[in-house]
Amino acid sequence: MTRALSITVSVGVVMLGCGGSGPGPTEPPDNEAPSFASAPTTTGDHNRPWSYTVAVSDPDGDPVTVEAIALPAWLTFDATTLTLSGLAGFDNLGNHTVTLRASDGTRERRQHFILTVAPGEISCDQDFGDPLQSPYILPWRAGAEYLLQQGNCNGSGGHVNWFAYDFDLATGDTIIASRAGTVVAVREQFADGTRICGQEQENLVFVQHDDGTIMSYIHLTTNGALVDVNDVLAQGDVIGLSGDSGCSAGPHLHVALFAAQRTGFDRQWSLPINYSNASGMIDGQRQLVRSERYRALP
Ligand SMILES: [Zn+2]
User: Which of 118, 144, 179 is the last residue of a domain?
Assistant: First the structure.
């Protein structure tokens, strides 16, 4: 059985304020508040520009001004282009309250939202800064020299979108603390040469510095951690012996620096490192260069 569907539409047109048929001059103007005709994306990544261009309309055709009355410090609002924009850093992860106000001079409307910033990809093309100002020294004793097998953000291999260095230390070679700090993690029970990936079988030492950052020293040899959790280390103190544990293609030391409270292989949280005592080539970004050798100066 088929049913015919019929729709009746009636259109009513009401003319207001045209040619004297509307409110008289003694009545108050029937002003309506402006409204927001746009909505923001309420998520963003750190290290990636976030922006929102506001669109407003006013039923009466009045000029509308927009201002930001609540904003996190990393965002700015341009009242001419009506654009809210900024670049969140690690310190800006989490939720931010934003309140915008649109006004036609008499009435206003607010738009309120929570913008959530999550860790994003790192900025591989950034400058690493002046090595001589770096708080880090190479993680081996003065006079020793090693090859950089893999550097930061390599397009292939294990360091894609990651600030990390692999140096060709042999199993048993001494590792020292690149910067003073407190040992916050130790793992040393796993065997060398297993080639097991993704199961946290890397022997390691993590050292947290006074700015909250954490240096990870990874792939140590079995029982190769020579420090304990809560040990307080000076720069240059011996922390362990290099090795070939966990996800490793051969003996080497993997080092990576992480933002506060983030450790291990969470590459989105990695930070660029250079070294104040490295003798060897640096590139235009002032980072160490893959396949180059680096000697630790005293
Ligand atoms: Zn590595």
Answer: 118
